[in-house]
């Protein structure tokens, strides 16, 4: 998203390239650029890019290609590649294989084929479809994962069983895991009928049965059908059906994970992973079996890469059907990997594209002094950013001011209020040895409230400390909170204090997950709720204008009425005296461990027992 007046827009031509995150993006697509007038009467330009392999959608096999010696001359833009035909790869690859077909259709383009290890002998026939559609058809027919390297223009088609890269990376509770959701799919099939080309079945190679069974998870019968019109061999059909049933005979899991990517720290650089890798999930509650599934989606902030999300599939789930979705829908995005395994999707949206990210745009084409004072969208503003060298009040339109773009994850502990009309933030990340500190402040305002926030996250080895403070001002109350959460191998501990002030009440709270101390004050009373109350100095309690009681730090206690001592307890350190209006009447001696009556005791109206 760019201001509509930005000079960068002139460089974002239909033929430009954008290099970002180990991938190359282009703008040659439908609905590539939107010009928007928002509700603040500000003009924006939204640029949406696709990864460079998308250019194959405008590339065709010309004039045609065919290896079928029995067929007529092919029509224009036709592709006929059959398993029993001539070899189109110079005998580099066996006729009828996916590698043979992919190699053939890429000839004449500037893309090359990488590793192709899916198996099977198939036919490929199509007419008047692009190379990108042909690549999709090859994946549909032979199966596997498509892996795109848009920098080197290489396409791989990998077998899910053979391509299981594992570097020992772990998504581990109490280390790098912030949030995890496990979704369980219970669509189970235990009896599977298999059919190939022209209703080919497996009865001849399966003891007369057209179906196979797998009751390794449950003894109950759930029937399904497997169809693949591209399989002509009964043995191969049975093999594919067995593999398919192995996937669907038990529940399958998908894990959606938010984590802190600690690879940004030097001491964790070895903990590497890429899209498509197999990783361990260590969470005794969510994943008690510690599975090793595959990363099928990696979403991250390009400028703050430690903030990332992963979708991780069941270790037995190949997600072939998901990967066969349309090239023009977002459902297909998650199945596309580049050579570095870092692709998170094929669209760039809502992102400011800097000079460094555009291959044919140089910094000298953008000057710091061409900012429209009516619309300022830089975070650090100084005189060199303004053509006249100064910023005055008449250059800022009334309404709302927004500096930068904020989401709820830009610093942990900072929260967005609803519909802010003013928003300003600052954040930074500092690293020193094994210590990483990510901190930020946030100021927000809308018609209902003003919010001031500050947060800091400090990571040291396996310990993460999150601190946050917040002040919210509304018409009916003021509320402030300060909290700290420590996460380490021993567990999680958090503590929080809160002050809430209203016209008729003030509440103070301090506590953790188990113990809370609170003071509540209203016009009528004060309530103290705590496991322990410590009072220092002289404490006086007034019942009315004539009576009071006092405590002091030495343990002395007195009750007065009309300024006369009615009762008192005096601490003499090695004795304690109890007295009244007439003086001391009982001494408790610490030295002799005895009670010593004092003064005159009148027992004339008493009943004395045991003397």
Strand order of the largest sheet: 23-24-25-26-27-28-29-30-31-32
Domain count: the total is 5
How many angstroms does the end-to-end distance come to?
A: 98 Å
The major beta sheet can be summarized as: 10 strands, mixed
- Judged by helices, strands and strand pairing, the structural class is mainly beta
| Beta-strand fraction estimate | 35-45%
Helix-residue proportion: under 10%
Number of DSSP strands? 39
- Count of DSSP helices? 4
Q: Radius of gyration from the CA trace?
A: 38 Å
Give unreliable regions as ranges.
315-391, 395-410
What does the average pLDDT come to?
80
What coarse outline follows from CA principal-axis ratios? elongated
Structure description:
With 611 residues, the protein is mainly beta. The chain is elongated. The chain starts with a strand and ends in a 14-residue tail after the last strand. Helix content is 7%, strand content 39%. The longest helix is centred in the middle third of the chain and has 15 residues. The strands form nine sheets. The chain has a ten-stranded mixed β-sheet, with no helix packed on it. It has a seven-stranded antiparallel β-sheet with strand order 33-34-35-36-37-38-39, with no helix packed on it. Strands 2-3-6-22 form a four-stranded antiparallel β-sheet, with no helix packed on it. Helix 1 runs antiparallel to helix 2. It has four helices and 39 strands. It folds into five domains: 64 residues, no CATH class; 103 residues, Phage tail protein beta-alpha-beta fold, CATH 3.55.50; 162 residues, no CATH class; 130 residues, no CATH class; 59 residues. A hairpin with a 2-residue loop joins strand 37 and strand 38.
């Amino acid at each position: 998203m760019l201001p509509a007046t930005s000079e960068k827009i002139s460089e974002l031509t239909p033929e430009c390239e954008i290099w970002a995150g180990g991938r190359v993006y282009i703008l040659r697509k439908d609905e590539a650029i939107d010009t928007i007038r928002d509700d603040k009467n500000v003009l924006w330009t939204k640029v949406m890019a696709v990864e460079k392999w998308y250019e194959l959608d405008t590339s065709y096999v010309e004039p045609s290609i065919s290896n079928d010696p029995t067929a007529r001359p092919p029509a224009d833009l036709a592709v006929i590649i059959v398993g029993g035909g001539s070899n189109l790869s110079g005998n580099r690859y066996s006729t009828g294989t996916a590698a043979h077909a992919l190699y053939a259709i890429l000839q004449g383009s500037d893309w090359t084929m990488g590793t192709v290890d899916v198996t099977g002998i198939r036919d490929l026939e199509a007419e008047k479809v692009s190379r990108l559609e042909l690549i999709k058809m090859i994946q549909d027919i032979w199966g596997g994962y498509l892996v795109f390297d848009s920098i080197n223009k290489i396409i791989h088609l990998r077998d899910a069983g053979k391509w299981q890269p594992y570097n020992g990376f772990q998504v581990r509770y109490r280390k790098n895991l912030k949030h995890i959701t496990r979704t369980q799919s219970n669509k189970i099939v235990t009896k599977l009928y298999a059919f190939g080309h022209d209703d080919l079945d497996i009865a001849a190679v399966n003891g007369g049965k057209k179906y196979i069974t797998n009751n390794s998870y449950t003894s109950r019968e759930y029937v399904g059908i497997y169809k693949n019109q591209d399989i002509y061999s009964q043995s191969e059909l049975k093999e594919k059906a067995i593999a398919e049933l192995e996937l669907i005979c038990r529940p399958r899991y998908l894990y959606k994970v938010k984590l802190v990517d600690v690879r940004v720290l030097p001491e964790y650089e070895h903990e590497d992973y890429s899209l498509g890798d197999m990783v361990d999930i260590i969470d005794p509650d969510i994943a008690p079996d510690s599975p090793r599934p595959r990363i099928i989606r990696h979403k991250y902030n390009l400028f703050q890469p430690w903030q990332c999300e992963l979708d991780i599939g069941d270790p037995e789930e190949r997600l072939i059907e998901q990967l066969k979705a349309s090239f023009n829908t977002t459902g297909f995005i998650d199945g596309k990997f580049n050579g570095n395994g870092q692709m998170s999707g094929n669209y760039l949206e809502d992102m400011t594209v800097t000079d460094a990210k555009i291959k044919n745009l140089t910094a000298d084409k953008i000057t710091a002094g061409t900012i429209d004072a009516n619309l300022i969208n830089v975070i650090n503003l100084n005189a060199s950013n303004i053509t006249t060298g100064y910023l005055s009040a008449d250059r800022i339109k009334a309404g709302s001011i927004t500096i930068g773009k904020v989401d709820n994850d830009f610093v942990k502990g900072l929260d967005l209020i609803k519909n802010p009309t003013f928003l300003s933030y600052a954040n930074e990340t500092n690293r020193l040895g094994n210590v990483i500190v990510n901190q930020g402040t946030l100021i927000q305002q809308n018609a209902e409230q003003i919010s001031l926030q500050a947060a800091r996250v400090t990571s040291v080895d396996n310990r993460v400390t999150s601190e946050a403070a917040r002040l919210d001002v509304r018409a009916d109350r003021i509320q402030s909170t300060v909290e700290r959460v420590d996460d380490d191998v021993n567990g999680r501990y958090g503590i929080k204090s809160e002050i809430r002030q209203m016209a008729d009440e003030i509440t103070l709270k301090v506590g953790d997950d188990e113990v809370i101390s609170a003071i509540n004050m209203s016009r009528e009373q004060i309530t103290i709720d705590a496991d322990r109350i410590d009072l220092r100095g002289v404490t006086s309690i007034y019942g009315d204008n004539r009576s009071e009681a006092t405590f002091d730090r030495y343990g002395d206690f007195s009750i007065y009425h009309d300024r006369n001592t009615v009762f008192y307890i005096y601490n003499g350190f090695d004795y304690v005296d109890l007295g009244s209006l007439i003086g001391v009447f009982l001494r408790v001696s610490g030295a002799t461990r005895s009670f010593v009556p004092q003064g005159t005791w009148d027992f004339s109206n008493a009943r004395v027992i045991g003397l």
